Amino acid sequence: MRLKIITIDGPAGAGKTTVSKLLSKKLGCVYVDTGALYRGVAFEIQRQDIDWKNDTALEKFLKGLDLNFVMEKDSFILMSSGRNITDFIRTPEISMLASSSSARPQVRAALLDIQRNIAKTKDAIFEGRDMGTVVFPDAAVKFFLFADLNIRAKRRFDEMPDETKDINRVKKEIEIRDHNDSQRESAPLTPAKDAFKINASFLTIEQVVDKMLKLIEKA
Ligand code: DC
Fold it and tell me: Whose CA is nearest to atom 16 of ligand 1?
């Protein structure tokens, strides 16, 4: 039987990860957060102090990069050279660095096989920015999930445990990432032509997942 791939693309804070987790439970498949890979690259760039805007330095760095996902229970953890880095990749600095360094085509090329290899053995939901457009153009069902900037900023703000958090800063950072991710030349964030577009601004997670399940059933 042909393996089923579902893609969910969209901007930061639209709810892709929460939706993917719930949808994967309902469908009994795994979900893959491809943003974690770009965050893993950013984490290593920061840790090794790499001049990633320099082609030679970036290419040497990418040759030595050893990132992969390991299945633990029903989700993936991110390993870098055998070390679990899952807990270190969610800081605002890593978010910004992942967004800017992911515009480099060499970085995108280095992560392509990791993503496609997972799809060879498993039915999966892949979430990211270019899943339906570049990585899995033949996916069974494609979604593009988006929401109003103010609503995305408020959701991110509410999730942050940090006492010093500032809603305007969160909004500004999302705006910069939206711009970086959608204006870059290499695999920009844009809906695939055949994607179902869902505006999640005024929907609960359950409502988004219900909508998706109905569309998947019909597909
Ligand atoms: O989904 P996220 O916020 O964890 O992703 C972090 C950054 O990684 C995002 O701002 C852009 C980049 N990214 C990408 O370029 N392509 C993907 N498929 C996933 C993420």
Answer: 129
Q: Specify the CATH number for the domain of residue 136.
A: 3.40.50.300
Å from CA of 99 to ligand 1 middle:
6
Cα distance between the two ends of the chain: 16
Q: Per the domain annotation, does 218 fall within a domain?
A: no
Give the closest residue to 210 by CA, choosing from 201, 200, 195, 132. Answer: 200
> Using a 6 Å CB cutoff, which residues line ligand 1?
12, 34-35, 38-39, 95, 98-99, 102, 128-130, 177, 181
Split into its structural domains, the chain has a count of 1
Structural domain containing residue 138:
5-199
The protein residue whose alpha carbon is closest to atom 12 in ligand 1 is 99
- Cα 48 to Cα 118: distance, rounded to the nearest angstrom: 27
Closest ligand 1 atom to the C-alpha of 181? 11
Residue range 41-74, pLDDT digits in tens: 999 999 999 999 999 999 999 999 999 999 887 7
Alpha-carbon distance of 213 to 156, in angstroms, equals 25
Distance 16 CA to ligand 1 centre (A): 11
b/e map 81-117, b = 16+ CB within 10 Å:
eeeebbebbeeeebbebbbbbbbbeebbebbeeebee
Residue 215 lies in a domain: no
> Would you state the pLDDT for residue 3?
67
Is residue 204 in a domain?
no
Is 101 a domain residue? Answer: yes
Quote the CA–CA distance of 27 and 59 in Å, as a whole number: 39
